[in-house]
Inverse folding.
């Protein structure tokens, strides 16, 4: 095989490994990580399309709900090299890979994250905690923000809570567990899951897509979250940018 044929074959192979992407943002218009341990950190976002859950309260239905959105206009296919070329020129260190459910495409995330780490970035992968990560993703420089969905979020826990996967994340020592809540009853259910599956550290985030809703839920939850010695996060992108898409 000559060098031209080899190069052509390599390019074709990468095209076959393209990720299905909903949107990328944070380069032209800067933004922050709005939730969890990196709250307030400047961040770049790669939002992947497709999800294995259908949560009623999902705030990114355009990644999976094809009864309301057209996948042909809501997603594109991009190679790892294309995504790295988009992210690397930015001085922002943190790259957040979110969804949808990113681990549906995790075989293609391994080369993407490897290239991002080599370029000096650090990576957070936001996942619903129903799919175990490949060994190639469980490495220094990558953290998982695992957000199991309890029943009040509009998804049957028989599908959204997978004990073996939660244990795998807990054992990895590279995961935090972030739960969305609105009521004290939600916190009681979260406490049951935390104890049963030995989850730590635990972050609680108030549900809401308006500043008023987030603030109201925060005031309901704050004392009880503090009493349980968990962490509390708000939703900075909602408070700062009114939940605008791409912020």
């Amino acid at each position: 095989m000559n060098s031209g044929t080899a190069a052509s074959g390599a390019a074709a192979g990468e095209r076959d490994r393209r990720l299905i992407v909903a949107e990328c943002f944070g380069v032209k218009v800067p933004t922050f990580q709005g939730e969890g341990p990196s709250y307030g950190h400047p961040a770049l976002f790669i939002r992947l399309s497709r999800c294995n859950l259908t949560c009623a309260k999902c705030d990114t239905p355009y990644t999976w709900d094809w009864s309301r959105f057209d996948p042909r206009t809501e997603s594109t296919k991009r190679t790892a090299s294309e995504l790295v070329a988009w992210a690397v020129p930015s001085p922002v260190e943190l790259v957040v890979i979110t969804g949808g459910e990113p681990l549906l495409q995790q075989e293609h995330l391994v080369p993407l994250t490897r290239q991002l780490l080599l370029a000096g970035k650090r990576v957070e992968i936001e996942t619903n905690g129903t799919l175990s990560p490949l060994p190639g993703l469980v490495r220094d420089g990558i953290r998982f923000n695992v957000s199991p969905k309890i029943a009040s979020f509009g998804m049957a826990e028989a599908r959204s809570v997978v004990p073996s996967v939660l244990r795998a994340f807990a054992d990895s020592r590279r995961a935090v567990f972030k739960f969305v809540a609105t009521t004290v009853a939600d916190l009681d259910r979260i406490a049951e899951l935390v104890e049963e599956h030995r989850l730590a550290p635990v972050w609680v985030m108030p549900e809401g897509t308006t500043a008023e809703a987030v603030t109201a839920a925060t005031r309901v939850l704050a004392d009880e979250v503090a009493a349980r010695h968990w962490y509390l996060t708000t939703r900075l992108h909602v408070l700062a940018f009114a939940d605008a898409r791409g912020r």
About this structure: The mean pLDDT is 95. The radius of gyration is 18 Å. The beta strands are 19-25, 31-32, 42-48, 76-78, 94-98, 122-127, 142-146, 175-181, 202-206, 231-232.
